[in-house]
């Protein structure tokens, strides 16, 4: 069974073809719009939707060529349906509907956060639920208990900023280009992570809050008292401490051995190393997708669509973006 996955929820236009029988991604294209948004210091929704519209058709034909397949060989179409920028989602959903209707193939609307989580399974075929999912992305900071590919329980979420948003805002204040995460990671390498002590908010709650640390770092930048490298390193270290603090509160209540960490911020090499090392001794294994699959991609949409297909939950042509099952957000 060949599944086409379409992702347009934010500023990546991406498609992948997944062969469910061979359990293999046959071809994948990720076209990033980062250069278009950089001058604005963040994603401009109108520019994002228009660019998805321009790119989708070319990417569709290019991916079929790369996989050496014809349109008729596609058995299932999966598309990100929520959450995301509404205009961007609409472009992807409209394209997917037209395609599924024209090809007379089933269509599945995929929750983007479920897809981030399940992306880990593509490269770790032995990893099976139940496990914990920590999503650290541009728009979300969530911990889910994943009972099956279709059954997510939200255990913890941020009450204000997402961790990726926090990286981006700190970077912007430092005059670094968008997206800020990789820039902070780079300069933090030359800094002292213990130079400045930032607090962890909501210590007794499983929920996250990042607005306090964001403001604390922004104030430090204003004061101009510290080396930029030390600021970046101390900020990253606090994010790491924050993540393990909340994860530990959740783990204490559950007998769980596997944790998957996904979303754009999980591409951060420092956080990967620190989290892996920290949990090594406790018998808990941390799984990450490859860095390519940490940020938005069609691979995770195709894979998740296939998982949902086994549950026989399809998307009707009358349904629209945000009519998504399961609604795990
Ligand atoms: P969501 O998945 O919540 O809808 P999104 O799709 O915009 O949001 P992703 O594309 O998964 O988010 O991730 C983008 C975020 O990841 C940005 O905030 C970016 O700064 C951050 N990011 C990317 N690489 C790194 C890195 N190396 N270190 C820290 N953050 C990073
Ligand atoms: Mg993005
Ligand atoms: Fe994402």
TrEMBL record:
Its EC number is 2.3.1.234. Binds 1 Fe(2+) ion per subunit. The lineage of its organism: Bacteria, Pseudomonadati, Deferribacterota, Deferribacteres, Deferribacterales. Its cofactor is Fe(2+). It is found in: Cytoplasm. It comes from the Bacteria. Its main location: cytoplasm. It catalyses: L-threonylcarbamoyladenylate + adenosine(37) in tRNA = N(6)-L-threonylcarbamoyladenosine(37) in tRNA + AMP + H(+). PANTHER family: TRNA N6-ADENOSINE THREONYLCARBAMOYLTRANSFERASE (PTHR11735), TRNA N6-ADENOSINE THREONYLCARBAMOYLTRANSFERASE, MITOCHONDRIAL (PTHR11735:SF6). Residues 24-303 form the Gcp-like domain. Fe cation binds at residues 112, 116, 296. Required for the formation of a threonylcarbamoyl group on adenosine at position 37 (t(6)A37) in tRNAs that read codons beginning with adenine. Is involved in the transfer of the threonylcarbamoyl moiety of threonylcarbamoyl-AMP (TC-AMP) to the N6 group of A37, together with TsaE and TsaB. TsaD likely plays a direct catalytic role in this reaction. NCBIfam families: gcp_kae1 (TIGR00329), T6A_TsaD_YgjD (TIGR03723). Substrate binds at residues 135-139, 168, 181, 185, 268. GO terms for molecular function: hydrolase activity; iron ion binding; tRNA N(6)-L-threonylcarbamoyladenine synthase activity. GO terms for biological process: tRNA threonylcarbamoyladenosine modification. This is tRNA N6-adenosine threonylcarbamoyltransferase. Keywords: Acyltransferase, Cytoplasm, Hydrolase, Iron, Metal-binding, Transferase, tRNA processing. It comes from Deferribacter desulfuricans (strain DSM 14783 / JCM 11476 / NBRC 101012 / SSM1). InterPro entries: ATPase_NBD (IPR043129), Gcp-like_dom (IPR000905), KAE1/TsaD (IPR017861), TsaD (IPR022450). Belongs to the KAE1 / TsaD family. It is an enzyme of class 2 (transferase). GO terms for cellular component: cytoplasm.
């Amino acid at each position: 069974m060949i599944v086409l996955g379409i992702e347009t929820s934010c500023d990546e236009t991406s498609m992948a073809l997944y062969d469910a029988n061979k359990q293999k991604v046959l071809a994948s294209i990720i076209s990033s719009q980062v250069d278009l948004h950089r001058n604005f210091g963040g994603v401009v929704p109108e520019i994002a939707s228009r660019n998805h519209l321009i790119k989708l058709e070319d990417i569709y034909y290019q991916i079929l060529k790369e996989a050496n397949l014809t349109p008729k060989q596609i058995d299932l179409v999966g598309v990100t349906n929520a959450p995301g920028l509404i205009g961007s989602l609409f472009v992807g959903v409209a394209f997917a509907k037209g395609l599924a209707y024209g090809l007379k193939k089933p269509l599945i609307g995929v929750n983007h956060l479920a897809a981030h989580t399940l992306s880990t399974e593509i490269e770790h075929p032995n990893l099976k639920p139940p496990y914990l999912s920590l999503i650290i992305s541009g728009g979300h900071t969530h911990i889910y208990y994943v009972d099956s590919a279709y059954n997510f329980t939200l255990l913890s979420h941020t009450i204000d900023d997402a961790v990726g948003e926090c990286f981006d805002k700190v970077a912007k204040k430092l005059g670094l280009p968008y997206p800020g995460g990789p820039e902070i990671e780079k300069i933090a390498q030359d800094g002292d992570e213990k130079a400045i002590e930032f607090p962890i908010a909501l210590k007794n709650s499983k929920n996250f809050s990042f607005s306090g640390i964001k403001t604390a770092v922004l104030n430090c930048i204003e004061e101009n008292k510290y080396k930029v490298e030390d600021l970046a390193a101390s900020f990253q270290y606090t994010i790491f401490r924050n993540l393990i603090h909340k994860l530990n509160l959740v783990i204490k209540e559950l007998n769980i051995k596997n944790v998957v960490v996904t979303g754009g911020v999980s591409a951060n090499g420092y956080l990967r190393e620190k989290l892996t090392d920290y949990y090594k001794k406790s018998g808990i294994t941390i799984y990450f997708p490859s860095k390519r699959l940490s940020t938005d991609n069609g691979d995770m949409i195709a894979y998740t669509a296939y998982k949902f297909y086994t549950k026989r939950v399809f998307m009707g042509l009358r349904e629209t973006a945000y009519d998504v099952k399961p609604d795990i957000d």
